[in-house]
Amino acid sequence: MSYTIAPVRPADKRGQAAVDALLLREGIRRDAHLDYTCGVYDDEFELCATGSCFANTLRCMAVSSAHQGEGLMNLVVSHLSEVQAARGNTRLFLYTKPGSAKFFGDLGFYEIARVPGKLVFMENRRDGFSGWLDAQRRADAPREKTAAVVMNANPFTLGHRYLLEQAYAQAEAVHLFVLSEDAGPIPAADRKRLVAEGTADMQRLILHESGPYIISAATFPGYFLKDDDDTSLTHARLDLAIFDRIAKALGIGMRFVGEEPFSHVTSLYNRAMREELPRYGILLRELPRLEIGGAPVSASAVRQAVHDGELERIRPWVPESTWNYFSGPDGAKTVAALQSMNDVKHH
What we know:
The chain is of the alpha/beta class and 347 residues long. The protein has helices spanning 13-25, 72-87, 101-106, 128-136, 158-170, 188-198, 229-250, 264-276, 299-307, 320-327, 332-340, and strands at residues 4-7, 36-41, 47-54, 57-63, 93-96, 110-115, 119-123, 146-151, 173-178, 205-209, 252-258, 283-287, 291-292, 295-296. It is globular and about 70 Å long.
């Protein structure tokens, strides 16, 4: 029998329904975030296998039980890899069921972390994660009473600074991971620069980019695009399983985080941290947010004020470097982008 592989267009309702049915039969939940889907068809144009992409990940891959053992998954992975290569993505990640991890290992993917009974997260580089970890290590960094903070800093506020000050007071060193994902109006390079400028006096702070391994479109897409709660919690637990490996490599024993009264998805992530981090032997410090004028300081309030053209309102909420950015020429494009958006608050 010969097979044909072809895209399944979003507008192809019949094709999409066939994909949904195949995934359901094989016990795979359709991901809400897919930007490309393909199908493998037999001579009678019946769907035998499928696979999808989102950003630089492969996901929702399945072969009909009637056609397993015929090499169709190899065909799907090869096709999706070609699609990704055409996009310029050669560093690929995938999600799969725990029972399928060995199969994808045979196809050249390497396990990074898993959520038992839920999913396994893999990449196509043997030394991808270990190489990234090696790049984060610093020989002179203390390995006792070492803390971590992870933030989007979108933008960097006095609330972020306050959280870092609390961590700094209780730890010999603080590893600060700034999210690398360019998923909003403030470029990642600008966010990292504002953090660096706003913490220049903190000599024991070690600044990192998060890369694809901490709250990224690969590990936690629901942070950037709305997901249902069960999916968000599963991805949060995956992200924390990866963080456990990072913590062990860098000697991190504490993680500091602010309470989250505004963002639903971030509050779910905090909940996952309360459940998971103690199991990894990592102490969680969840602190009340800094308040100014009786209200918690938040990056979303800063973005909203900029969007509304009320720039002066943000002055009490941000360090001088962040104020200079938004009020000066460096941030002019970001201000224009924020003001053009319909919604600048995180869901």
